[in-house]
Amino acid sequence: MFTGIVEEAGVVQAMTRRGKGWSLEVEAGLVALGVKIGDSVAVNGCCLTVAGAKGNRLVFDLLDETREKTNLQSVEAGGRVNLESSMRADGKVGGHFVTGHIDETARVTRWSRSGEDWELEVEVPAGLERYLVPKGCVAIDGISLTVGKVEGRKFNIWIIPHTYEVTTLRDRKEGDKVNLECDILAKYVEKMSGIKK
């Protein structure tokens, strides 16, 4: 479990084929401190298990499905990924409850400067718009964000300078895919209320 408060942007060292899966190696800073084999780390919002650690370099094993269904399929050496250590039970929940289980990838349809801030517009795959409500929560590439305006399958988010500077959002451009995790509370409400998809 995570909170969507990204600690840093790590630098990808390699993404290599390993048997029936993949091995992802990332150079980290804060997240690498005290990490142990078996710990969970959110990488662009995907909950991955630390399979190896060499100093500040963390190694993760990915299944084909994880790579194919997320934007990790396009990472390359030198690229950056958002990193967050798993939530501590005695720590602050500064964002919202994020599981690290990506629902789908969504597409950036607009990404522009607006005064001191930035406006990000994203289009979600059909069916996921039901989880989006103004002022609700969503995780994009593992970042806990507040939904602004919702119009059909598109929604916008206002990005403050701090978020822009410390995450990989500044690397994004229109047309890029981002990992999307909708609010788990909305999914439980839907399930318990018997609402049909």
Give an overview of the whole structure:
The chain is mainly beta and 197 residues long. It folds into two domains: 8-85, Elongation Factor Tu (Ef-tu), domain 3 (Beta Barrel), CATH 2.40.30; 104-192, Elongation Factor Tu (Ef-tu), domain 3 (Beta Barrel). 11% of the residues lie in helices and 43% in strands. It contains three helices and 13 strands, in the order E-E-E-E-E-H-E-E-E-E-E-E-E-H-E-H. A seven-stranded antiparallel β-sheet has the order 10-9-13-7-8-12-11. Strand 9 and strand 10 (143-146) form a beta hairpin.
Radius of gyration, in angstroms, nearest whole number: 16 Å
Low-pLDDT parts are none
- Summing up helix and strand content along with how strands pair, one would put the structural category as mainly beta
- In which order are the strands of the major sheet placed? 10-9-13-7-8-12-11
Could you name the CATH class of the largest domain?
Mainly Beta
- Count of runs of 4 or more consecutive helical residues: 3
- What is the H/E order? EEEEEHEEEEEEEHEH
Mean pLDDT: 94
Question: Main beta sheet, described?
Answer: 7 strands, antiparallel
Fraction of residues in helices? Answer: 10-25%
The overall number of domains is 2
CATH architecture of the largest domain: Beta Barrel
- Measure the end-to-end span: 25 Å
